Amino acid sequence: MKKRFLCLTLTLCMVLMACGKGGDEKQNNAEPSLNSSAESKEAASVGVEKGPVQAIADEKVSSKDILVVAFDREPATLDPLGNNVTVKRMIEGGIFDTLLEFDENMKPSPCLAESWEQIDDLTWKFNLRQDVKFHNGDSLTSKDVKFSFLRVNNGTMGNDAAAKFDPDGYETPDDYTFILKTIEPWAFTEAQVCSEALGIVPEKVVTEVGDDAFGRAPIGSGAYKFVSWTAGDNITVERNDDYWRDKSILKTIKFRIITESASRTIDLESGGVDITLGLPTTDADRIDENPDTQLIVSTGATDRYIAFNCQKDVFKDKRVRQALNYATDKESIRVVCYGENTSETMDSVVPSTLPGHISTLKQYDYNIEKAKELLKEAGVENGFEVEFMYLANSTNNMLAELLRQMWSQVGVTLILKPTESGALTTSLNKGEQELCCAGTSYGLFEAGAGLYNMFHTERMYSGSARSNLSNPEVDKVLDEINITSDAEKRAVLVGTAQELIHEESPFIYIAFTKNIIGARSKVRGFVPTPTAMYDFRTVYFVE
Questions:
Q1: What span, in angstroms and rounded, lies between the C-alpha atoms of 166 and 189?
Q2: What pairs with residue 390 in β-bridges?
Q3: What is the b/e burial string over 309-334, where b = at least 16 CB atoms within 10 angstroms of the residue's CB?
Q4: What angle do CA 168, 463, 450 make, to 5 degrees?
Q5: Residues of 120-131 as b/e, b for ≥16 C-beta within 10 angstroms?
Q6: Residue 487: C-alpha distances to residues 119, 125, 188, 502 (Å)
Q7: Cβ-count burial of 23 within 10 angstroms (0-12 exposed, 13-18 middle, 19+ buried)?
Q8: pLDDT by residue (tens digit) across 417-446?
Q9: Distance (Å, rounded) from C-alpha 222 to C-alpha 133?
Q10: What is the pTM for the complete model shown?
Q11: What is the pLDDT of residue 22?
Q12: Gap between the Cα atoms of 284 and 302, Å rounded
């Protein structure tokens, strides 16, 4: 059965592929410098399996000063207040600064706050830099920080990054001191304030123009200034020459919106774009072998999974969820859809790159008879229909077709519902789906924080909680993780949480995906990160 199904998957893959063609050590630099690129080479090698692109000693730096980057979807807004879509946050990460940021080892380090300290279990004090200006020339002060945090607390656009912060606990003793309080002791405060979702915005500007207008023409204090947004085509930013630390080497970055993966690959090969993010795994070898392009593969912190909506009647019984786990040839889907060498077998909800990951869970191996047995126990041996909602792209189309074939063997009819990005996010946040395909990146690089966001009852119908699981025993462990500051003790609790969640079977594990990027052969200085929040300040070209 296994070999026969793998043959079917590979055949289907070929058909669908054919159809789818068509830190701030340096300050106040007067000019951009290549030093930052050289200094980042050692850091760039962390977690990188192929690449990153680096200069060779005798290469001559090109005068080309425009970088074109392609990605697969258009954000609804460039306001940090909006949803956590990776490409959106990546662009915002260049426009806005945060209080802290992750260093090359994914540890919180200074950014707008040059120093910070924990005053007590709930209270944190941040000492701001005094030389930071917004792109309009206004000074950034603690009042802007307070406004930005309160705005997230009170916002309705899907950003809940301040959910653990007490909105009545923000204080600004002076222009360059900001104090925040958490609602309860929380182990992830420092990591959270690194999040692009808490980018600092200018109170004066936002108040004058309003949220909608600000989101289409944002002003921040970051390395890049917003220039223009052509709907459906591109978003353009340019270097902030008054930036308070290392400037971008290149003057202009144009982010092109190319929703079709085949078109992104073709544009990379033809020179229409310089970097393609989220390169399809099916095109990886092709880009690697082309002398005009190069392939960059780095370890990520992302789960790819199929999520049961545990609040829908059809999936309230965990035996049904377990049965469909057994009915899914997960390894075949991984190899076909995400690539044997560009993804890893997913064996838990916690990525293998994070502390606390356990690899000893008893897996739901592909077993049709076991699946039928469990469906009979649950009283649905005659089968049922279920709607499968997913982002419409070539990879997900392949996955959906494979899943439909597999589940037909146990009497389950899958109704496919490919959906565009904005509508999909809206539906998932409302919990309208029965079943969906999703990916979650552990943006804080903390397993406990990621698990809380995905599986705690309080997080149901939020950005990461695609299964809407509600289990008091799971909640209890996740609550304890949140208040445990000792990393070793927290890792043990993370292991316990994984075991409980695994038994509930809210997900079908598909893959731990790696970050796959295509670049033109003359691109240098690109530094991959596990969270896919790329900083383009160090990128340049050679002749």
A1: 12
A2: 418
A3: bbebebbebbbbbbbbbbbbbbbbbb
A4: 85
A5: eebbbbbbbbee
A6: 20, 22, 11, 22
A7: middle
A8: 999 887 898 899 899 999 999 988 888 889
A9: 9
A10: 0.78
A11: 34
A12: 19
